[in-house]
């Protein structure tokens, strides 16, 4: 069977977008293990996974909780912790090489944003911290405005992000803002860890639609996702379905329904395909079935529902076995060989932040002052307290004289002021933690993806 290629992929292969430095990512026989270190059996997190991701397409890594979605995503992005062992190959444009900063961006589940800034200010400060110092203000402004429009943040660009004190932008807009911060440096590969978590169906749709638009720019987008709606699922080009660290299906997302039907597990006409896939491979449903066994409801439905008559482990094993010998797996292996033989254009490596040290210091200082000045609980209330305490201490020790006893009074005054200022400085710890999270996330992204 021939491999169907979308128009965007055809343009890329013809070289229309090659000048930008596209990224073909291929992984072969990836196995990830958690060693026991003498405290039990070795645990396999991923079992010999192979696949590929192409520019101009968006891939969904889907599966039940604990199936290995985040582990596969972290493995491909080079973010695995040091206590796990990985075997297999990850190749970029046919070569085994490190995925560097500027080539790869990773969007985590957590939103590391300052609630006192607006989306436009957040992106602007990030741009000044990461883009080259040689760029003019007009060039930086153009990139910031282009990023805002690309992520659909125009309507909320000048509203505060919001925190526990101030109501701000919605959860979906925060997710899109987090993605906007990562695409500032125009990475060729974008990884996202469950970007629709905690969002309603409309917000999730807008987030994935924004990712779809990013992929059309010739970028490779890989996202883990738990249980998307049918509208969201239809936006994905490719699907990697996992269960227990094993591949159940890999190929075009729209052909997954056909594969399940050919394997003997057709998706009902009115059911969300992603719900059906997870129903077939999620072992948690076995617990539910066992709990309901013997009830009237189960006796009424078990004859018509073939999923009730088979254990999930049995279904998963059957699907995995059928996939390995299916035309879908054959097409995937054939496409992998083609991509491995492709000598892609060398992608320019960015060695960390391109902004100068002085510009970064100035930007961080300015951002810190803006953050503090807008935080009424941290900044303005403390100023009022300091003024009141200064007035009280000043009146208490006013005109103490120059006698011997005045020396003790002056010492007591100095000790009180020093101790009070020391303990009051602890009040700024929450604000410090908030900024530290943002800065550590930015620093971690640079260190983890910087060339060595």
TrEMBL record:
SMART domains: AAA. It comes from Solanum tuberosum. This is ATP-binding cassette transporter. Belongs to the ABC transporter superfamily. ABCG family. Eye pigment precursor importer (TC 3.A.1.204) subfamily. It is a multi-pass membrane protein. Keywords: ATP-binding, Membrane, Nucleotide-binding, Phosphoprotein, Transmembrane, Transmembrane helix, Transport. The chain crosses the membrane at residues 377-398, 404-423. Pfam families: ABC2_membrane (PF01061), ABC2_membrane_7 (PF19055), ABC_tran (PF00005). Residues 25-269 form the ABC transporter domain. It is found in: Membrane. PANTHER family: ABC TRANSPORTER G FAMILY MEMBER 11, ABC TRANSPORTER G FAMILY MEMBER 12. Its main location: membrane. It comes from the Eukaryota. SUPFAM superfamilies: P-loop containing nucleoside triphosphate hydrolases. GO terms for cellular component: membrane. Gene3D superfamilies: P-loop containing nucleotide triphosphate hydrolases. GO terms for molecular function: ABC-type transporter activity; ATP binding; ATP hydrolysis activity.
